[in-house]
Design a protein that fits this description.
Helix content: 55-70%
Largest sheet: 2 strands, antiparallel
Shape: globular
CATH topology: Ammonium transporter fold
Distance between the termini: 119 Å
Strand order of the largest sheet: 1-2
Length: 454
């Protein structure tokens, strides 16, 4: 017994010595999330890709579609929204979106000015630094605002756009992001949105439509055919968006793992299926497929797969993509023609309608077989998920419509929402920015001035 006590005493002394050298919290820290270099590297790349998707991607895509009189102004809308939203995001946008939940409605003020955002694991659960998570989400917020500009290009005043960008991301985007991703009431309910079907695309598409109606149509909306002025720029922009979407969707896994690879693959195949579906429709209806239509179809497929990218199988992604083509084509060529609203670059037809279809499709095709973190959808025995998705869609539509309407009406109390008729007909590149995209436009303007003076 004495010998055993001596041996036990030796072990006890050794244990006490170890605890003195390695405090208890070190052993407990093993359960705390650690920064993973692989995950961090991927998220750095994904964030940079999403920003590249915004500028030059969306700027070129929209810039190629407008007339040559409004190329610079259209690109300015995309570029300036990145600047403004990024500053707002640091000051208060991120905190309202991802701060500690307050009654399921909004985030708290803990992260104002990026206070408390540092090198530690993001939100206490992820394996990437808080810095990179916050900037990744910033890129999402910025491009969502930029998409809206497609519905009102060529006629909104620049001052109104600057104010709108700051107010909209604060009062529309931030609440929705919190409800879906930040622990708010839609998140608690179980609505699925992997990378932004409701938060990004429905919000931006419906807001673009609302803004187009509030501001009114272009003066020459129904008098002339507004053909794209440069299809080459448009295609470069579309390809850049496609490239950026890999960071957008696959990056939303917030790690480098199997779900990341699934989202990457689903993104590609949905875009391809939608592009084929669109040119097939054009071939049947118009007797010839077009490059603009085919590329627009691919973008529609990318929009539709966004909420489902990490929750569905690849065959399901093909179905979601190919169905998005007729859905968005009908919205652009029949609904728009029937109601005669002037959604300049079809932001609602592609992003709004495509986002609605994608969110609903997520409730149909989602399966825990590919992502245990998600839920099963209708086809996998859970019809309630489809109901949750429809609630999310309805919420996004109401918030975007009401929020955008109020913001624009408030802005109109202080400044004009749109440019004058003379400025619009001259083109905003010259009338406001005095910076034509092409020398030929400047020469034509000079010639007009000379003829008027003589």
């Amino acid at each position: 017994m004495i010998a055993l006590f001596k041996k036990g005493g030796s072990f006890l002394a050794l244990a006490l010595g170890l605890f003195m050298i390695f405090p208890l919290d070190v052993f407990g820290a093993e359960n705390a999330p650690k920064i993973d270099t692989g995950d961090t590297t991927w998220m750095l790349i994904a964030t940079a890709i999403v920003i590249f998707m915004h500028v030059p991607g969306l700027a070129l895509f929209y810039g190629g579609l407008v007339s040559e009189r409004n190329v610079v102004s259209t690109m300015m809308h995309s570029f300036v929204s990145l600047l403004i939203v990024s500053v707002v995001w640091v000051l208060w946008g991120y905190s309202l979106s991802f701060g500690p939940d307050i009654a399921g409605v909004i985030g708290g003020f803990d992260y104002l000015g990026f206070n408390g955002v540092g090198e530690e694991a993001a939100l206490g659960t992820l394996t990437i630094p808080h810095y990179i998570f916050a900037i990744f989400q910033c890129a999402f917020a910025a491009i969502t605002v930029a998409i809206i500009s497609g519905g009102i290009a060529g006629r909104i005043s620049f001052a109104a756009w600057v104010l709108f960008s700051a107010l909209w991301v604060t009062f529309v985007y931030a609440p929705m992001a919190h409800w879906v991703w930040g622990g708010g009431w839609l998140f608690t309910m179980g609505e699925l949105d992997f990378a932004g079907g409701t938060v990004v695309h429905i919000l931006s598409g419906v807001s673009a439509l609302t803004a187009a109606i509030v501001i009114g149509p272009r003066f020459e909306h129904l008098k002339r055919d507004h053909a794209p002025h440069n299809i080459v720029l448009f295609l470069i922009g579309a390809a850049t968006l496609w490239f950026g979407w890999f960071g957008f969707n696959a990056g939303s896994a917030l790690a480098a793992n199997g779900v990341t690879a699934l989202a990457f693959a689903n993104t590609h195949v949905a875009a391809c299926a939608a592009g084929i579906g669109w040119f097939a429709i054009e071939w049947i209806i118009r007797k010839r497929p077009t490059l603009v239509g085919t590329a627009t179809g691919a973008i529609a497929g990318l929009v539709a797969i966004t909420p489902a990218a990490g929750y569905v199988t690849i065959p399901s992604a093909l179905i979601i993509g190919v169905i998005s083509a007729p859905v968005c084509y009908f919205a652009i060529h029949f609904i728009k023609a029937r109601f005669k609203y002037d959604d300049t670059l079809d932001a609602f037809g592609v992003h709004g309608i495509g986002g609605i279809w994608g969110a609903v499709a997520t409730g149909i095709f989602a399966t825990k077989d590919v992502n245990p973190a998600g839920n099963n959808g209708l086809l996998y025995g859970n019809p309630q998920q489809l109901f949750h998705q429809c609630v999310g869609v309805a919420t996004a539509i109401i918030l975007a419509t009401v929020g955008t309407f109020i913001i624009l009406k408030v802005i109109s109390l202080f400044i004009s929402l749109r440019v004058s008729k003379e400025e619009e007909l001259m083109g905003l590149d010259l009338s406001f920015h005095e910076e034509p995209a092409y020398n030929t436009v400047a020469q034509s303007a000079d010639a007009m001035k000379i003829s008027k003076s003589s």
